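Practice problem: Fe2OG dioxygenase domain-containing protein
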Amino acid sequence: MAAQPVLPLSKYSTIKGISDSGVLSSLPSFYACRDPDIDGPTETLEEEVPIIDFSLLVGGTAEQRAQVIQDLGKACRDWGFFMVVNHGVPKSLMETMLNACMGFFNMREDVKQEYNGKHVFDPISHGTSFNSSVDNVRYWRDYLKVIVHPHFHSPAKPSGFRETSIEYATQTREMAKELLKAIWESLELKPEDMEEALDLNSCFQILVTNLYPPCPQPELALGIPPHSDHGLLTILLENGVNGLKVEHNGKWVHVKSLPNSFLVNTGDHMEIVSNGKYKSVVHQAEVNASSTRISIATAVGPSLDTVVVPAPQLVKHKHQLAYKGMKYRDFREHTQANPRQKYIT
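Answer key — structure tokens:
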């Protein structure tokens, strides 16, 4: 493996700081988590993930809505990923949110360090890598995590971040709830039962912004390693730079999002409540040598105090119960204390 540290990097606390410094011509060994000479090339497909027209779900005819619900069920069953178009979130808000997040990462490192967090439930947390408390290697990623529901939080800087993020969080949460209702219906369950079972009025929503600066040897690094997401749904916005790979039928699929669209994936707790009918899919983020990629992931889960169990209607006999119940809060703390991986199998 050719990656070697070039200069001491201790004065840089972020990947952006390292990348902007220009001190690297090769990748420091502790960021090298892949070895092409050993691992060999991995096959990557160029298939398209399913596309869901949100406008037909909320404003179409009864027949159109029924078809979208059927399509959603198939997408959750076969892929665990789908692309949402005609979603009603203004393009101007999406662009402003991306710019606000870039504005945060562009602040001085000492200012950003005010938000460095240590606990999974810190209202605002800034850092680097993936799960630095347990990672054996580092990942080429800076992040900002903000809990936005049931209580809204926001960094004080940059100017305008709070106003933009509260509007963005509200609109993506409402979209997620509509998608969840339809997914629930695709399982032949009543939407009102979902509200009660998961306490969605007090749902836990976190906004995670990921920054992947240019990397000197992207073939050796990863932005985020293969993992699944906690919660029910994750809604992803990208800045037009691709990097997401999704595991599908044992192979990796390079996902290319359409302009003005969201990528949505099912999470661990969707797998649990569906008793395994809908899987939480493994995915990863790759980096490149020339462009900065920003993604904004909005994860929506049940309330933190909800004990998440399979929907009783999907368990006809006791031996068919695929998952034991666990309080969502306890699950989040468990995942923070352990190397991130596909937790439920």
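Discussion: Residues 161-186 form the longest helix (26 residues). Students who identified this feature from the tokens alone can consider the problem solved.
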